[in-house]
């Protein structure tokens, strides 16, 4: 949850799962935004005054803010109470703004990628992912140079430790691009639920983490929805589904491997810490040379030298936009998680798939049937049920 998404994925930001499970690290890490470092804001967010401000009626708000007189007892409002309530409303508005920014960026990222690969029929998925990673490196490097964020310097020791994770990261991005080219957005969203199943099984065997019955029921519903969705998909494409299944395994492997490698990576950093911005920098920087090699391996050079799309300014504008959106998911996901918490973040991430799926069907005029639509809806509801089950599972 947290760094470049996943793409995405996002919603999946690509680090979203790890950001949720390590929510405490975000507020303590060096990569947190400077305007969120005040302890006053943290205390305000945990206070019940925020709920009080939300639940007030418009008349009550008007009487306190404009008249500054309590109509029930006629006493003037204390200046301290005014300041506290004003700060609570400000934090509440920041949380709403952060959530809206996260939802917009995560949905837009997938839709823009789908537009580039399908509507333009662009056949170089490698260049798309290279462009996005290159823009992320430029922006993060600039922000780090200006002192707005902090990142760990790239050392050979850190690169050697992180390289296995980066190889999986690149494979995850590429397979996501390939699957999105052949499968509609709604089905990609539903099929990505299979990643949760693989991850849960991996956690059980690798980390001896046991899940309660509600989680397993939700995972079973995800499998059923994925199978029924594939069987009723009017635009079924075997190649696309194959790439998506591979993507699910790679995404789960990335999540599981990241947890082990992060502890080792922290030991070889200068500060002894590895914040989310450093992970963004590591992944995107190391993926650039690997991406250039893959362009030659997949024989995309000939296509890139002949396609007229690269001579269209509008096409490059859209490609650049996709790069900014990829990084925006990382920033907004950390911002939203810092303003709310792991529980709200996880639930909103699941609910966000519903408008994304609907937008994908309508914008790209995907042929669908009642059975397929029901399967998609069933899968999305299963995702929300899974998020709620995971919340209750946490101690």
TrEMBL record:
Keywords from UniProt, A to Z, are: Membrane, Transmembrane, Transmembrane helix
Report the transmembrane regions from the record.
Answer: 95-117, 129-149, 161-180, 186-207, 214-232, 238-256, 277-298, 314-337, 344-364, 370-389
Coiled-coil ranges (or none)? none
What is the top-level taxon of the source organism? Eukaryota
Which region ranges are annotated with the description Disordered?
19-47
**What membrane topology is annotated for this entry?**
Multi-pass membrane protein
Residue ranges annotated for the Sugar phosphate transporter domain, each copy included: 96-385
List localization entries: Membrane
**Protein's name according to its UniProt entry:** Sugar phosphate transporter domain-containing protein
